[in-house]
Structures are given as structure tokens and as C-alpha cells.
Design brief:
Layout (H helix, E strand, L loop, with lengths): L2 H4 L3 H7 L4 E4 L2 E11 L26 E6 L3 E8 L5 E12 L1 H8 L11 H8 L15 E4 L7 E4 L13 E4 L11
Antiparallel strand pairs: 1-2, 1-6, 2-5, 2-8, 3-4, 4-5, 7-8
Helix pairs in contact: 3-4
Length: 183
């Protein structure tokens, strides 16, 4: 992924990542759903400034920001934006590579349930906090820009208590792999 692609406003990057391919050690698929967050957003982890937890979001673009949600699920973000403190949460993938590995990690057979939602996505791809701050253009990551365009729908982000009305959620229209409420 080119740094220039990621050095744009976070909403442009979130929309632009739709259709891109994310692999972690060869396991992954097509990005079908994202959410944007920046430092001015009360729902963002960077709203109150730098902390040890959100340090990756203040680093260079193209890094992974990995955190635990509710102390249970890992979530993967791509650090991006014009100014430090922005990232795109990867909410869902259409599985394309390493599907059997994903099934074993998730304990489900239905491909629609492998990477639908950020916690499931990370579990299926084997993403943990050990990858926080790692460059997404170097192993174990591979992040490719979309080669095809898709009809993209926009909506409100979910699972938030602040900034809930902000329509910074992007998804492939009609995809069976997006998380709840996107279509």
C-alpha cells in the first residue's frame, strides 16, 4: 500500500480500502467493511491525546493499531490520515485465502461468519496485540490497494456510545460478509 494512498483524509482512506486485499501470513481476503476515526472524533481512541495504548495511531501511516475491545476481542486498524491520530478499523473481510486455517481458528464452517465483525476478523487471521505498531507493508502483513471498484454504502458506526451519528462506516453494498446492519 502506497504511503500517498494512506496520507489522505481518514474517510477517503476508509472508503478507498474497500475492495483491497489484506493477508496475514497468507491468510485473509477482500476488505468489505471499514470505519473511520480521527483525533477530532469523540469516539476515537486519540480524542484525548497520546497514551501508551494508542501510541501506534500517532506514528507513521501504514502501521497497524491493534487493541482489545471490551477486554475480549482484538481489533485491527490501519493508521492513516493527514495528521497523526487517525486510523481505519477493518470491520469485515470476504475470505479468499487460508479458509481452512480461518475455520480452525474460529471453529465455524460458514464462510460468512469467519471475518464478519472486527473481533472475528482478528481471530480468523490470528491477529493479536503482538502486531500493534507493525508496518502493514511487511510480513506478516500484506495490504494491497483495490483493483476493482464496488458500490459502497455509507452509514453510522456501530458499538459506540459517542459519535454514534457520524456516518463514517463504509461497506460493499449487498455483501454477505459485512457485519450486522450494514446492508
Amino acid at each position: 500500500m502506497e504511503p500517498a494512498f494512506l496520507s489522505r483524509p481518514v474517510t477517503e482512506v476508509a472508503r478507498g480500502l474497500i475492495g483491497g486485499i489484506l493477508l496475514v501470513d497468507g491468510v485473509g481476503g477482500r476488505i468489505v467493511e471499514t470505519e473511520a476515526y480521527d483525533r477530532t472524533d469523540p469516539a476515537s481512541h486519540t480524542f484525548r491525546g497520546p497514551t501508551p495504548r494508542n501510541a501506534a495511531m500517532f506514528g507513521p501511516v501504514g502501521r497497524a493499531y491493534v487493541y482489545r475491545s471490551y477486554g475480549i476481542h482484538w481489533c485491527l486498524n490501519v493508521v492513516c490520515g493527514v495528521e497523526p491520530g487517525s486510523a481505519v478499523l477493518l470491520r469485515a473481510l470476504e475470505p479468499l485465502a487460508g479458509i481452512e486455517v480461518m475455520r480452525a481458528r474460529r471453529g465455524v464452517a460458514d464462510p460468512r461468519l469467519l471475518c464478519r465483525g472486527p473481533g472475528r476478523l482478528c481471530q480468523a487471521l490470528g491477529i493479536t496485540g503482538a502486531l500493534d505498531g507493525r508496518a502493514m507493508d511487511q510480513p506478516p502483513f500484506s495490504l494491497e490497494q483495490p483493483g476493482t471498484t464496488f458500490e459502497i454504502i455509507t452509514g453510522r458506526r456501530i458499538g459506540l456510545t459517542k459519535g454514534v451519528a457520524t456516518e463514517w462506516r463504509f461497506a460493499v453494498s449487498g455483501s454477505a460478509y459485512v457485519s450486522r446492519g450494514a446492508n
